[in-house]
Amino acid sequence: MELLPWLPAHPDLRAAFAAARALPEPAARLAALAKLAGFRRDFLATDRMDRIIAACLAAPEVRGRLPQLGLTPLRVALLASHSVEHLVGGIRVAALDRRLALDIEVAPYGLYRQVLLEERSPLDAFRPQVVVLALDAWDAPLDVGLEASPDEVEAAVAGRLAELRQLWRRARERFGARIVQQTLIGGDPPVFGGFEGLIPGSPGALVDRLNRGIREAAREDGVLLLDLAWQVNQHRLEGWADPVRWHQAKQLVSPMLAPLYGDLLARVLAAATGLSRKCLVLDLDNTLWGGVVGDDGVEGILLGQGSATGEAFLAFQRHAALLARRGVILAICSKNDPAIAEAAFTSHAEMALRRSDIAAFVANWNDKASNLRDIARTLDIGLDSLVFVDDNPAEREIIRRELPEVAVPELPEDVAGYPACLANAGYFEAASFTPDDATRARSYAANAERRAALDQATDMAGYLAGLEMTLVAGPVGAAELPRVTQLINKTNQFNLTTRRYTEAEVERLAADPASLALRFRLLDRFGDNGLIGVILARPDPAWPADALLIDTWLMSCRVLGRGVEAASLGVLAAAAARRGATALIGEYRPTPRNALVRAHYADLGFTPLPAPAGAGTEASFWHYDIAIAQPPRHFMKVSAE
Amino acid sequence: MTTEPEIYARLNEVFREVFDDPALEVGPGTTAADIPDWDSQSHIALIVATEMRFGIRFRTAELESLKNVSDFVALIQAKAAG
Predict the structure, then answer these.
(1) Which of A44, A51, A251 is opposite residue B44, by nearest beta carbon?
(2) Residue A85: which of B41, B60, B63 has the nearest Cβ?
């Protein structure tokens, strides 16, 4: 099996690499290499690319300008019970493909406990933002005999998990870092054959039990998972826990698999920083069903029971439908007659995808690049949030050339391989899942209806009033913590300061009587838009005691242009006044992705302030006098909880 | 059958890839001392790259005897003949 089969093969990677390397400017060199990172590459090519990438990232003219270059800097510490130096290149290149610029520090091999627990740590100066704990099944196996009772095994597992959680806590307290925990692979082969799983103290059963415990503990503690134990079954390649490499160099992952391992870790890091893709755009003919609906008719397409091919297409539809249930937005982009294309959805008995699953349905004869731009605009998401799936290699090629931001997976010849190909490519890696995610796809579809209503409305005020909106506001409570934290960590566009917080940090701020943590939900006549806004405000030593600094203000772009900002300001000002504050201080910290809100505070009636000493040079500050200023007019009912 | 010069030529390509040096020339007398970057980590990369490019697998015991370029060539030749 091929490594990274979803990435397109470059016609001449060697020449392109030589050309990229010859570019005089480090920033240009880095941009050229970031493009090459999206092509299929073995570990040798990957390491060659990484040497240049690492040098470019270290160049002062790049280092200080990462956000301007569209890259998110991230310091990652690798703490491993095996040797990982040979994986660093694979990690950094795959991360760059996801617009992350990694600074990677590898802790001395096998010393992960000391690095976290001892009073002075070599990581103190590095200040990691992410700590990856890469452990394996060969490392300190549990000390229980083959004859151990289930209770003895449970006690030993609980002891190991408690130790692990202690390390997680320590890494959080010490560095404020997010943790990525790897599940265990490797270890000894079964000694009981197929009976292994029935013996709690057998090596195989112990590793299984530990991995299950690691997953449960990670869920409870908000730790991210690099689930290698699960991934090795998805990516069936030679080189996972190869005993030769283990005996020779204590490598758990063969150098050959470094590009894949790097990709698996990079997608977790991307998910944690809000850089996962959001929308799956699907072609129709020979992608969602066999045949051409315009020629064969709705009854003539191959879909569903009765033929193996029809079942394979149905299985791919089911996979897409499940992605929609977990919050991936679905769109259709097809060269087709729109009426016929829609008819397939409404009148073919075997369709697993329903018309209501599709947030943007584009069937016409225009070129697909223009249609993809329209889809992104309709949904208010970036082109870099799209994944485009089309059976036609020519269409894929055009999109890669015209819209390099869009991810376009290479697909296997056989549609039966589509679901696994899409899943293995990891475009939609999640770092959380909340009930709001499950309804998001529907909410995007409802947005398209709202847009249609807007087209019909003659004036904006009439349109907004006609939406019958209610903004439900209240303090962030335990129930909202996961979704609020998720929004804080993945909202990039409508985000005034782009400060990221862990669930524990949000909880602490919400419990602080001097501070405010507010969350907002928007309802309208088309449905519930879910939790769409968060404001955190707190006293700050740089400002007068009777002022609250708006530390964080963010909103989901789905409800842009509806007046939510003005209504939210009213709620914030009232709540701040109840805390005894007389003024609000707004702060805007520009990033490459939040130009949308540059004028946010000016539009809301804030007045500019000089920046306090020590603030970033690019940040701007704004003043709002609660007693005097009036928020702009809006068209929604406000219900405060 | 693969001749010794052919093996040297292909192995030279592997060395150039691993050490990222298109000008590198390795011959029967080349040892780790001649290539500054030839350390324990790149040694493994060399082994894995050689396995990948020649479609062979070295046994654990064989790895311990791989110290310089002529060791690589002798072993590749033995495996190709076997």
Answers:
(1) A251
(2) B41
Per DSSP, what are the bridge partners of residue A519? A474, A534
How far is the C-alpha of A453 from the C-alpha of A451, rounded, in Å? 5
Q: Which domains does chain A have, with CATH numbers?
A: 13-272 (3.40.50.1110), 279-425 (3.40.50.1000), 435-640 (3.40.630.30)
* Out of A94-108, A312-326, A594-608, least confident range: A594-608
At a CB cut-off of 8 Å and minimum separation 6, what does B3 contact?
none
pLDDT tens digits along A142-156: 889 999 999 999 999
> The complex's ipTM?
0.93
Closest CA to B15 of B81, B58, B68, B74: B68
Query: Given the structure tokens 């060791």, which residue do they identify?
Result: B71
Cα separation, A519 vs A482, whole angstroms: 12
Please tell me the CATH superfamily of domain B4-81, with its number. ACP-like (1.10.1200.10)
Give tens-digit pLDDT for A506-521.
999 999 999 999 999 9
Scanning A33-62 for CB atoms below 8 A from B yields 42-44, 47-48, 51
So where are chain B's domains? 4-81
CB contact residues (below 8 A), chain B span 16-45, against chain A: 17-18, 20, 40-41, 44-45
CB A415 within 8 A of CB A312: yes
